Amino acid sequence: MMKHLLTALAFTLSLSAASAEIQSISTEQVLERDTQKSIVVDVRSPEEFAEGHVPGAINIPHTEIAKSLENLQSNSDKTIILYCHSGRRAGIAANYLEEHGVTKLRHMAGDMLEWQAKQYPLEK
Q1: For domain 22-117, is the CATH number 3.90.940.10?
Q2: What is the pLDDT of residues 104-119, one digit of tens each?
Q3: What is the pLDDT of residues 46-97, one digit of tens each?
Q4: HSE (CB half, 13 Å, CA atoms) of 85?
Q5: 101 vs 2: CA distance, rounded Å
Q6: Contact call for residues 75 and 99 (beta carbons, < 8 A)
Q7: Which of 31, 51, 6 is nearest to 109 (CA)?
Q8: Cα 16–17–19 angle (5° rounding)?
Q9: pLDDT digit string (tens) for 3-50?
């Protein structure tokens, strides 16, 4: 039993050490971004996306980010800005992309919760 706990703890610590901190970008910076130099990716579900999203964002649910890896890698000249509802799913997607060589990544600070709190425009 103790051996299993130690193994689980070691695995958890190795995951923590492996996941780098993805740089954040403020909601203000996303609002004023150069759309030619960035791609905004909403990693929420299609239903959440349809309810309203950052203008110009594309929807790639975090569970399907692997299917879009090649397309995202081919846009290496652009910064990929990720967001979700509160940050968990964007973090999962960011870690996956970073592990697969995507380096120009940003996470929108505050995610959709902050975007809506500031009453920024939504696209439907």
Answers
A1: no
A2: 999 999 999 999 999 9
A3: 999 999 999 999 999 999 999 999 999 998 899 999 999 999 999 999 999 9
A4: 8
A5: 37
A6: no
A7: 31
A8: 70
A9: 444 333 333 333 333 445 789 999 999 999 999 999 999 999 999 999
Count CB neighbours of 104 within 10 A: 17
Q: Classify strands 58-59 and 105-108 as parallel, antiparallel or unpaired.
A: unpaired
Nearest to residue 124, comparing CAs of 63, 58, 64, 55? 55
- Cβ neighbors of 22 (< 8 A, separation 6 or more) are 82, 91, 94, 95, 98, 105, 106, 107
Task: Report the amino acid identity of residue 95.
Answer: N
**What DSSP letter does each residue of 89-107 carry, written as one string?**
HHHHHHHHHHHTT---EEE
For 3-66, the DSSP string reads: HHHHHHHHHHHHHHHHSPPPPEE-HHHHHT--TTSEEEEE-S-HHHHHH-B-TT-EE--GGGGG
